[in-house]
Amino acid sequence: MQVIETLAEGLKREIKVVIPAKDMQDKMNERLADVKDKVRINGFRPGKVPAAHLKKVYGKSIMADLVNEIVREQPAAILSSRGEKSATQPEIAMTEDKDEADKILAAEQDFEFTLSYEVLPPIELKSVKGIKVTREVIDISDDEVNEQVLKVAESARAYETKTGKAANGDRITMDYVGKVDGEAFEGGTDQGAELVLGSGRFIPGFEDQLVGVKAGDEKTITVTFPADYPAKNLAGKEATFDVSVKDVAAPADVEINDELASKLGIESADRLKEIVRGQIESQYGSLTRQKLKRQILDQLDEMYKFETPNSLVDAEYNGIWSQVNNDLAQSGKTFEDEDTTEEKAREEYKTLAERRVRLGLVLSEIGEKAGVEVSEDEMQRAIYDQLRQYPGQEKQILEFFRSQPGAAASIRAPIFEEKVIDHLLTEIDVTDKKVTKEELLAEEEGETKAETKKAAPKKKAAKAEAAEAGEGEEAAPKKKAAPKKKAADESAE
Predict the structure, then answer these.
(1) If DSSP codes are grouped into helix, strand and coil, which group holds residue 484?
(2) Mapping DSSP to helix (H, G, I), strand (E, B) and coil, where does residue 428 land?
């Protein structure tokens, strides 16, 4: 077998592989000899089939198997012998001429194919001793814990039916039918819907018009959907809602006590406060780590400058750009609305893609040299977390992970990256700094890289941002078109 390098330009490589026809014929004859005693052909005793007849019957299929085995196994062996790692799966090109293909299968012509790929650039690791980061920490006050506990209590507040008129703070139960131009629209009908007046859950003007209603009242409400309403067919349009009030209930007093905790399935009020404090600590801890990780990545970005494989950058960029366009479509905005152009946005997100690929390669090299590994238990826990997000679809998701080789890698990669960050935190200079809640929540000054610029919708390529910062992003569940506000508003309740 001849292996001839025909292109070595930057990271691009092209390799021509030639396997002489005689070698292919020898391999075919070995296979024919192996099957001679196993096949059963009418008119011949077992093991007595002439070689020429065996070749006539099985030759082409054996050669086709040989060709498939070679193109499946040889690329990895060739790269290994050259000491190279391909950035992506090498592209394999073979003749498409039928006559030539027939000659190859008949062992009458050399078998040739070409490998095209980009190599991963060699990375010479530098000392990380000079990296200095500041870890922002915050003291959580009892007042903040109590405030959050009160919100939990209010979410579990009891309501008692009243006979009077509904006031702000009361909960009404209603049926409604929404119409635009006299026609009911999809998602605008509900029965037994509950709404606390003054909560701001529904679009502006809806709740105000229900103040003063009583159980049994029928009322038609007229509202205008916000111009940026997610459902484009409703955005900016006037609508009416025929409302039938079924019940009006007043809120009961909220008390933080063991009885409340028991209703929530917790043994005591003290334990409830402990749980809430732990949740707050976890939320602030995630933000602290996100900002800490950003500092590390920024300094690694300054330390390493090398050519990145276009195939990896393009794949990363395409993922970011797809998210950007999805955000634009959902918001109904354009690049001009965000004070930029598509051309500028593409440039900035291409820069972000290059940064992410470069840092990914650096972190991978650091992790490999440090012996960082992702255990089977960690993988199983991560897959289980995925399953919990999609109840009822567990079987399909497990099958997806089994059938798609890249699926497991997509689960492993973020775990590996976080473990590399953990390793770096043991090697670099970390200084703790007490900050206020406001300081922790504030965006860092100097974050002027492409990912922080408002190039496209203000999510700043949310998918790429979240991945780089170590966060996960879940898709918001679909909601009824009316009369609720956008999901972002509801999640703040």
Answers:
(1) strand
(2) coil
- Strand, helix or coil for residue 392: coil
Tell me how far apart the alpha carbons of residues 344 and 229 are, in angstroms, rounded to a whole number: 27
SS (H, E, C) 253-287: CCCCCHHHHHHCCCCCHHHHHHHHHHHHHHHHHHH
In this prediction, residues 301-309 reach a mean pLDDT of 95
Question: Could you report the per-residue pLDDT of 388-398, keeping only the tens digit for each?
Answer: 888 888 888 88
When pLDDT is averaged across residues 312-320 and rounded to a whole number, the result is: 95
Task: Say which amino acid occupies 476.
Answer: A
Cβ–Cβ contacts within 10 Å for residue 394, how many?
A: 13
Q: What is the 3-state secondary structure (H, E, C) of 183-238?
A: EEEEEEEEEEEEEECCCCCECCCCCHHHCCCCCCCEEEEEEECCCCCCCCCCCCCE
Is residue 350 within 8 Å of residue 382, measured between CB atoms?
Answer: no
- Angle subtended by helix axes 405-425 and 394-403, to nearest 10: 90
Structure token pair of residue 327: 């955000």
Residue 56: which pLDDT band, with cuts at 50, 70 and 90? confident
* The token pair that represents 36 in the structure block: 């001679």
Summarised one tens digit per residue, pLDDT across range 417-436 is 999 999 999 999 999 999 99
Kindly indicate the confidence band of residue 330, based on its pLDDT and cuts at 50, 70 and 90.
Answer: confident
- Per-position b or e across 239-253, b if 16+ CB within 10 A of its CB: bbbebebbbbbeeee
Cα 304 to chain centroid, rounded: 26
Cα–Cα dist 317/311, whole Å: 10
The angle subtended at Cα 110 by Cα 105 and Cα 116, nearest 5°, is 100
> Which amino acid, one-letter code, is at 283?
Q
Q: Could you read off the pLDDT of 87-129 as tens digits, one per residue?
A: 999 999 999 899 999 999 988 999 999 999 999 999 999 999 9
Q: Are 224 and 238 in contact (CB under 8 A)?
A: yes
Half-sphere exposure of 132 (CA within 13 A, CB side): 3
User: pLDDT at residue 72 above 60?
Assistant: yes
Average pLDDT over residues 344-371: 95
* Identity of residue 391: P
User: In terms of DSSP bridges, do strands 132-137 and 429-434 run parallel, antiparallel, or are they unpaired?
Assistant: parallel
List the structure tokens of 18: 């030639």
- DSSP structure class, residue 6: E
At residue 250, φ and ψ (nearest 5 deg) are -95, 150
